[in-house]
Amino acid sequence: MNMEDLKVRGEIGHNGEDGRSPARTPPDQVKALIQKAMEAKQRAYCPYSKFRVGAALLVHDGTVFTGCNVENACYGLCLCAERNAMSTAVSEGYRSFMAIAIAGDTDDEFISACGSCRQFMSEFGLNWEVYSSKTDGSYVKSDVSELLPGAFELKLKKNNIGSHIQES
Amino acid sequence: MNMEDLKVRGEIGHNGEDGRSPARTPPDQVKALIQKAMEAKQRAYCPYSKFRVGAALLVHDGTVFTGCNVENACYGLCLCAERNAMSTAVSEGYRSFMAIAIAGDTDDEFISACGSCRQFMSEFGLNWEVYSSKTDGSYVKSDVSELLPGAFELKLKKNNIGSHIQES
Amino acid sequence: MNMEDLKVRGEIGHNGEDGRSPARTPPDQVKALIQKAMEAKQRAYCPYSKFRVGAALLVHDGTVFTGCNVENACYGLCLCAERNAMSTAVSEGYRSFMAIAIAGDTDDEFISACGSCRQFMSEFGLNWEVYSSKTDGSYVKSDVSELLPGAFELKLKKNNIGSHIQES
Amino acid sequence: MNMEDLKVRGEIGHNGEDGRSPARTPPDQVKALIQKAMEAKQRAYCPYSKFRVGAALLVHDGTVFTGCNVENACYGLCLCAERNAMSTAVSEGYRSFMAIAIAGDTDDEFISACGSCRQFMSEFGLNWEVYSSKTDGSYVKSDVSELLPGAFELKLKKNNIGSHIQES
Fold first, then answer.
1. How far apart are CA A117 and CA D78, in angstroms?
2. How far is A29 from chain C (nearest CA, A)?
3. Cα A167 from chain centroid?
4. Are B8 and B1 in contact (CB under 8 A)?
5. Which runs of consecutive H residues, i.e. helices, occur in chain C?
6. Most buried of the four, A161, B141, D4, D96, by CB within 10 Å?
7. CB D86 to CB C77 under 8 A?
8. Cα A111 to chain center, whole Å?
9. What pTM, to 2 d.p., does this model score?
10. Residue B81 has pLDDT above 50, yes or no
């Protein structure tokens, strides 16, 4: 599977007509999320990569949190937009995530979450939605479980997670 | 230098009477920041360490951003409260930081920023203030430059960072 | 797909009889790799998670590099066994990887690489093999591309990668 | 304190004549370490930063482990040379470190360890030596404790650390 395969499979534009993990977020809401991700991208601090990314996270009560990438002279401390948005949401008491939209400066391909962000997403459930966009606003949908097959989880997590966490 | 040395040197409680890097943040504002850091701590997601931390960041126009630690089954992805607060501020367009307060569950020592957070702080200047607290609300002040002597900086950064600038 | 699905699909034990990404590493070599990963696990420095992991990486000329997890009081700096093995190989001048075996203390499930390690693997090609084992030595095979569908790659990478890198 | 201050204070070239943390590593050994760090630098994988770094770590029995930086398209996964060398040593069963030398491509200033590496160093004791070099082979010495004042340490670490660890 790659992002273009998702498109070929008819998952672009959320329709999911192949009967497999149809989008649960209404198209208007997806478009609004992508718009917010694009706005967040404007605030990216990326003097090293010059690669701007924004993300917008929809949580269970309809609130949206945004994030951009924040880089550091020590590259290993660079924080991706997706993790920024998720950690902001957690700081505000949210742990039940519905969907995240990602926007970059990629004209010709859907921007894909890196493995670290996929792992970070998986902490908050495997069945929520990830919308990867192009600059023209087109997008493909995937679920966290599709992006991180056979996800790594420590067992001890199970006993500690907050009541709002969506199970997967 | 360690945190207790700072206390011995009279820097506890912001007075700075040894003439060295006196606190620029008024004591009432420091107390309010620490209070916000303690509140943020309540939202920590730390099922692995069980070590709650909160941070409150004061930016140049008086706005305060908070953050808590957000952990992951893959420990290497755990995000500290301080970086969470800073990256949230950047997402909202702020890059000029005045002071950060840190609160943990440490009764008997001032909680100290880890090296990664010190490095992350240094990206936004070396002369702003870091207030490490105990659970009783007492605190010590340091500057980023004191916490990260001889800070690592890539030269290319120089051309990209503004005092308040939001780049695109 | 999860690790058990891989088993169900007949990929356990390298046979790949479903015609899909058959193992290229001979079974004896896989067993030797897993044995080395188990030995590396003994040297794990994991006072925080108590979760020991070892990895053994086979490079293009038959050399094997091993790694264990190395943790830190600042959890976000914890390094996984897989990345330890890969970075050791790079330090010795190798960038063309054939297969990696992972061993943990999991009796009842195959240990899975975290998203960060999958991302780190992808830097060195998408078509090399990942062997996840249980403590009894049984294993499942996957490829990096299966573990990180639609992998994130910066375009600029393409022009910079060393001559030994296997293309994917 | 910055790296130039260290030089001014007479710590360059290990002499420590100001009576403060004199070098314990003989000058010939320091030179050899720096030479190995420079060699390790040649193997850096840094297509993104183009900033090559090498490190050479001396452990308690005289063995030397080297490392280079290893970058990733997801910048947050970039691994510094220093951590690479340390994690390689741990994989080989060593946890008692004496000195580390760092070499970059900096002609006009001593290369400084980032905050993440300082934190990673502190896990293995605060009283061992860090030698930062220039391309001409000149260097300054510091101790981990000087580089990370008031180091952050989780208390639980104390009960878990291996027998070889040097106390500080």
1. 15
2. 24
3. 17
4. no
5. 3-8, 27-41, 81-91, 115-122, 144-147
6. B141
7. no
8. 10
9. 0.86
10. yes
